[in-house]
Amino acid sequence: MLRRRTFLGSALGAAALSTVPRAAFGHVITPSFKLYDTHAHFYTNDVDSYPFKATRSRYGPEIMVAKAMRFPQTPKEVFAFWDECGIAKGCGVQYNSTYQTDNRYLLDISRAHPDRIVPIVILDPVGAETPAALAKMATENKIAGVRFTGTPDKQGTYDFLSDAARGAWDACNRLGLVIVLMPIGGNMPATMKTVAQFAVQYPNVNIVLDHIGFPRPEVSPTHGLSPEHVALAKHKNIYYKYTTLLIEQLHAAKVPLQPFLEHMVKTFNANQMVWGSDVGNTPGSMFGWVQYALESAANLPEAQQKAMFFDTADRVFVPGGRGPRA
Question: By C-alpha distance, which of 119, 96, 71 is closest to 283?
């Protein structure tokens, strides 16, 4: 379980923490188990081999390119952070902001470090070539899944939750691959209802909701979960990713982390939850963000802590996919 050797008080704001190195933490939380980081972004400044396609960054393409050139997130940098925080391994999540659907860098480094990086690619959910690409990548590159993200059209429909995406979903269902979803904007309660329908239709797909599906960052009896969101709990092939990006949003809204996380665990079960650092994307001290995540889970039973920070992810993200259902 987490050994609480005192944490630099939660009153310290995220902005201040972002400038604080590990050495400034006189006492830190050290878990007795290794962590599994389900949300790590890798990119290199070797633009000759891996040119950027930075057109979709929330910071703007120029800022994203400058950031990647000055502060690349190669295995060297990310592994140093993982080692410092006791992270045994994690998912390399294709970084849309640098490479979009060009997954070559992620696949190359995961091939070089199969014991530490489990690849989650990004592909066009409605592309005619996507089903075959998924099958090839599962076999040759040992991907564990694919990530779909984006905004809805004028009718409120996300392309990855449309009939046009059925081919990709069919392929993942056949291969036993994970589909990581990050719907942005739109009517989130209606989106969660659609996610539930896809969970029923594709029972061999483990659906992972990035940032727990963006519950509203507010203090309320449901901690921002809509009824449609809560109803997902009955679907055991839906999982919920607790991330640094979400913690950042909760900080900004002045929502206490411990009650929020405890409510999520009570609603969805720790065996359905995973954790991700968002390294390479969220700014600030990554060591500090990990401390926030561990602190927010400190009152949970040991079994729930270990499930959320390692066991569930290790069970869900299977390199090469789980194969057809028995």
Answer: 71
Specify whether the backbone of 223 is left (phi greater than 0), alpha (psi in -120 to 50) or beta.
left
Residue 61 domain flag = no
Q: How far apart are CA 56 and CA 29, in angstroms?
A: 36
Residue 276 lies in a domain: yes
What letters, b where the CB count within 10 A reaches 16 and e where it falls short, cover 3-29?
eeeebbeeeeebeebeebeeeebeebb
* Residue 117's CATH number: 3.20.20.140
For residue 253, the SS3 value is coil
How many residues does the structure list for the chain? 326
Q: In what order do the strands lie in the sheet with 206-209?
A: 35-40, 87-93, 117-122, 145-150, 178-183, 206-209, 238-243, 273-276
Could you give the 3-state DSSP secondary structure of residue 182? Answer: strand
Strand pairing partners for 27? none
55 in a structural domain: no
Kindly report the number of other CB atoms within 10 A of residue 257's CB atom. 18
Domain assignment of residue 287, given as a range: 2-43+73-316
Nearest to 164 by CA among 174, 153, 177: 153
Flag whether 133 is in a domain.
Answer: yes
Cβ count within 10 A of residue 256:
14
Which of helix, strand or coil describes residue 146? strand
The rounded distance, in Å, linking the Cα atoms of 31 and 21 is 19
What's the number of domains the chain is made of? 1
Per residue of the chain (326 residues), give pLDDT as tens.
333 323 333 323 333 333 445 555 556 899 999 999 999 999 999 999 999 886 655 556 677 788 888 999 999 999 999 999 999 999 999 999 889 999 999 999 999 999 999 999 999 999 999 999 999 999 999 999 999 999 999 999 999 999 999 999 999 999 999 999 999 999 999 999 999 999 999 999 999 999 999 999 999 999 999 999 999 999 999 999 999 999 999 999 999 999 999 999 999 999 999 999 999 998 888 999 999 999 999 999 999 999 999 999 999 999 999 999 87
